[in-house]
Write a structure and sequence with these properties.
Layout lengths: L1 E3 L8 E4 L6 E4 L13 E5 L6 E5 L17 E3 L6 E2 L1 E4 L4 E5 L5 E5 L6 H11 L5 E8 L5 E7 L7 E7 L7 H13 L5 H9 E6 L4 H6 L24 H13 L3 E8 L6 E3 L9 H17 L22 H9 L2 E8 L15 H19 L4
Parallel strand pairs: 3-5, 13-14, 13-15, 15-17
Antiparallel strand pairs: 1-4, 2-3, 4-10, 5-9, 6-7, 6-10, 8-9, 11-12, 12-14, 16-17
Helix pairs in contact: 2-8, 3-8, 6-8
The structure holds (2-guanidinoethylmercapto)succinic acid and zinc ion.
Length: 375
């Protein structure tokens, strides 16, 4: 029996793995950071024997509430990721599984590999009305890729969408995959109408280094990119610097920053109500967007979410707040659950790549609904 994680987004530390019913593991911290929660590893063992895997250090992870009612995901073929019996006792996380094949992969959420990211960029840029732009390099020397969809013309709105600032939140890039598949479908009415009104600037992965490294929340240097939007630097957060520089060139009429949430079992949005520039126009746009999103899918809800920021008290290092303040525009953080949407639970898969992709398709309806009124 052996356990390994030496692959794209792999993260586990093996403490003991001699007996199938007593496998002891721990999650590694992000580099140069105290954050950890993302795990992804491979078990190579005898099938049809019950295995008990215990991750010892989950109580000190970034978001311990994320383990309440959480079920880990597993896969044999690295395509289908299903939920497995998982218990959290307040200290450690125990996974109880009887493999049906020699190799089983386990992860915090369905991984989105760097190869799949490159495939997404490659496919998208071959589509009509979609171009790739290189924005710059990351600290590990990977490319920051921007997809520009639609023809920039006078009067068209500029809509920016970023995803996966936090690399362990892989559902964010799954959402972008679904959003792009609809947006680039030349027969789709919402896509065609939206592209008559707007140009979309989409960054499918804001943090490729952290993704490959198996980080939860930071880049290669341990920087939490979603706290770097006030003063990004080439030395610590080039990913944000490249995107902000491009935003300066294009302007921004709407911004969506896509994330995942460890604890709350819902899809929800977090706005910019606490920024100094917040005003009735942005508030009305936020409501119009949410009403359209609620009509588009029952997977979205607006009852549960983050506490609202007090007026003028927003953290301006956060992307959504920084962009809303800088460009006086509608800006939302969109959150999906690592667990499930408990309004529409799925015991076998929980929240999943498929549902993330569908939400990407559905959010285009809400974006289309507000596009004309963004300015
Ligand atoms: C969150 S977004 C920051 C909190 N935002 C608001 N408006 N309360 C973060 O970066 O901590 C997004 C995430 O990590 O998923
Ligand atoms: Zn996040």
């Amino acid at each position: 029996m052996r356990i390994s994680s030496n692959f794209d987004s792999g993260n586990i530390q093996v403490i003991r793995a001699e007996q199938a019913d007593d496998i002891q593991l721990a999650i590694n911290k992000d580099n140069n950071s105290d954050f950890y929660q993302w795990f992804h590893f491979k078990l190579d063992s005898t099938p049809f024997i019950n295995h008990k895997l215990t991750i010892q250090n989950v109580d000190k992870a970034a978001y311990p509430d994320g383990w309440q009612n959480y079920q880990a995901v597993a896969s044999y073929d690295r395509e289908e990721w299903f939920r497995v019996d998982t218990e959290f006792d307040g200290k450690s996380l125990s996974i109880d599984h009887t493999p049906e094949h020699d190799i089983t992969y386990f992860a915090y959420f369905a991984p989105y590999s760097y190869e799949r990211h490159l495939d997404l960029i490659g496919w998208a840029q071959t589509c009509f009305d979609c171009r790739h732009e290189h924005l710059g390099e990351t600290l590990d020397g990977r490319d920051m890729s921007l997809l520009v969809v639609g023809q920039p013309e006078e009067g068209k709105k500029k809509i920016w969408i970023t995803a996966r600032q936090h690399p362990g939140e892989t559902m964010a890039e799954w959402l972008i995959e679904g959003l792009l598949e609809r947006l680039l479908d030349e027969d789709d009415g919402v896509a065609r109408s939206l592209l008559d009104k707007a140009v979309l600037y989409i960054v499918p992965n804001m943090n490729p280094d952290g993704s490959v490294r198996g980080h939860l929340r930071t880049n290669a240097n341990g920087a939490n990119l979603n706290r770097e939007w006030a003063t990004p630097t080439a030395e610590n957060s080039p990913e944000v610097l490249h995107v902000l520089n491009k935003m300066q060139q294009t302007g921004v009429d709407m911004f969506l920053d896509v994330h995942g949430d460890e604890a709350l079992p819902y899809n929800f949005v977090a706005g910019s109500e606490g920024i100094p520039a917040y005003n009735a126009r942005i508030a009305a746009l936020e409501n119009s967007f949410k009403q359209a999103f609620l009509m588009a899918t029952p997977e979205f809800q607006d009852e549960v979410g983050y506490p609202k920021d007090e007026p003028g008290k927003a953290n301006l290092t956060v992307a959504c707040n920084a962009v809303a303040q800088k460009f006086d525009c509608l800006a939302y953080t969109l959150e999906m659950p690592f667990k499930d949407n408990i309004n529409l639970p799925d015991a076998a898969y929980g929240w999943s790549p498929k549902r993330s992709k569908q939400l990407g398709e559905d959010v285009l309806i809400a974006i289309h609904a507000v596009a004309d009124t963004l300015r």
